[in-house]
Amino acid sequence: MASGQKLADLKGDTELITTFAVKPDGSHLVSASRSMQLVVWDLRTFKIERTFKARDSHILAMDIDATSTLVATGLADGTVNVWDIDRGYCTHNFKGHGAMITSVRFHPGTENLCLVSASGDGDIRVWDLKQRKCTSVLKSHVSAVRAIDFDESSETMVTAGRDSVINVWNWTRKSLIRTIPVYESIEAAGVLRIDAAAVFNSQKGRVVYSGGEKGIVRLWDLDSGEELFTQAKDRNAKHTFVDVMYLPQSGNLCAVTNDQNLLFYSVTAQLKRVRQIVGYNEEIIDLAYIGNEHKHLAVATNTEQLRIYNTDNLNCELAYGHKDIILTLDVHSSGAIVATGSKDNTVCIWAINMKAPVNHRVTCVAVAVGHTKAVGAVAMAQGSDALFMVTGSEDRTVKVWDLEPLRAIFEDPSHAATLVGDAEPIRLHTRYTFQAHEKDINSVRIAPGNKIFVTGSQDRTAKVWDVETGQPLGTLQGHRRGVWNVAISPADRVAATASSDRMIKLWSLSDFECLKTFEGHTSSVLCIEFVAGGLQLLSTGSDGLIKLWNIKDGECVLTLDKHEGKIWTLAKQQSEEFMATGGTDS
Description:
The protein is mainly β. It contains three helices and 51 strands. The strands form 13 sheets. Strands 29-30-31-32-36 form a five-stranded mixed sheet. Strand 14 and strand 15 (165-170) form a beta hairpin. The chain starts with 16 loop residues before the first strand and ends with a strand.
C-alpha cells in the first residue's frame, strides 16, 4: 500500500469474482466466483491453499470473524452459510431471508458469537452461532442494505442502504435509535475510530462515513444525525462509489469507483485525496512523455480523465476536467503543459508538477470552447516565443487559439496551482477559424519554427497551412483512404502521412510532391513519428505491429509484434532511449 505497486495477480478459474475478504491477521484471502467455488489464497506465496464447493447459489457477500477462523457467506438464494476456513467445511447453514443477501457482518464481540445479515428486501437478521438460530429480525429499511458496521464499544450498530438512509441501532435491545436521511443511494458506510474523527467536532466523537451514487464521501454525527462534512467533488467527475473501506492504521478511506479506480482520502486532512490506484485502462488512445526527465506519461484512454503515470512504478494520477472521452493530447516543449481534446467538443490546458502535493500536481488552467463536434487533433506551438494552439475537429474546422493569457503559467508551470487558486479555468479565444477539410480532421502537427502546420483528414488528404494568415499553402494528395496521422521531420522540410490504405508517404513541404512511399503494414497505419534526427521513422498500425523505417532507402529495418490489437499511438523520450505504445489491448 505504501508504493501502490502491484504485488501479484491471483488467477482463479476464469469466472467472474463476485466477492472476497481478507483475514484480519492478513495471512489469507478468501474469494468467491460465479463457479460457486470458495478459494483460499495464501498471501505469503500468492498461491491457492484450498478450494471447496459453496452450495448451489452465487455468493454475493462475505465477512471473516475477528479470530480469522470463520468466513460467513451470503448467497443469492437468501441463504447464509458459515465456513471453517482452515478445515474447509460448513459449520452453519441459516435460512429465513426472503431475498438475496446483500451484506453480512460478524459482531466484533467474542463472548457471544453473532452474525448479522441483510437482504435485498431491507430485512436484517441476527444469528446466534452457539444457539444456531435467528434471535432477532430488524425491520426499518425498505430496500437493499449494503453496509453493516459497529462502533468501538460494539454496543451500537450502523446499517445503510439503497433506500437513502442510515439507521443507528442499540445492539443490546436490538432497537432502532434513529434514522439519518442522506438523500442518495448508499453503497458503503461505517464508523470511524474516535481518535480519527475528533477533527470533525461531533458530540461524542462518533462519526459515520457514507458513500454511494454521488461519488463523494460524507460524514455524519452518529449521536445527533447531523451532517458534519461533505466532500467537494472533482470538476466534471461522473464516477459513483461502489464501496468505501476504512483503513484505520493509515487513517485513510479507500473509495472504489464504478470506473475501477481506488481513491484514498485522509480522514485527518479534511478528506483530501492523498493517492489513487488506477484499474482497467480500456483502450489507450493517445500518450506522450512529460516532465524534464521524461519519467512520466500523459495518457488518454476512452474515459474522461487525463492519466499521468510514473514510468518507474506505474503509480497514476487522475485529472478531472472533461465531460466525455479524451481523444487526443499534445505536450509543450517545456514538458509541463499538456493540451487535451475531447468528445465533449472542448480542449483543456493542464499544468503539471509531479513534485507538488497530491491535490496540486495536475491543474486545469484553461478551457477552449468553440468546436461543434469532437476535437480529435490538437497541437501547441513549441517554445515560449509563440503562444498559440491549433485544433482540428469532426466539424471539419481548424481553430487557432491565442495562449497569451497563459504566459505566466507557461513561463513558470510549477506555480500554476498557486496562480490559478480556486478560480475557474481561463476561457481561451480564437485567432481565426476556417473549414479545412471535407471530412473529420484526425491529426495536426506544427512544424519547427512555428510558421506552418499540417492537418490530416478522413477526406484522404493532408494540407499545409500558414500560421500567420491561416491560408492554405499546399495539398498532399495521393492516399486512397483517410489519413490518420501526420508527422514533420525535425531536420528537413519533409512531412510524413499515415493512412488506412496501409501506406506511409513522405512529402516535400517545398513543392508538396510525394517523395517516397513505404509499404509493409497489412492494415491501416495509425501513428508515425520521426526518430534519429529525422533519418528514421517509427510507425504503428491496426495489424498490431511497430515498424522502424530508414528514410533514405525506405527499408523496414525492425518489426516489433507485442500488441494483441490496434496500436493507436506511440511516444518517444527526448533521448530516444525508450518509446511507449498504446492500443486497444490497454
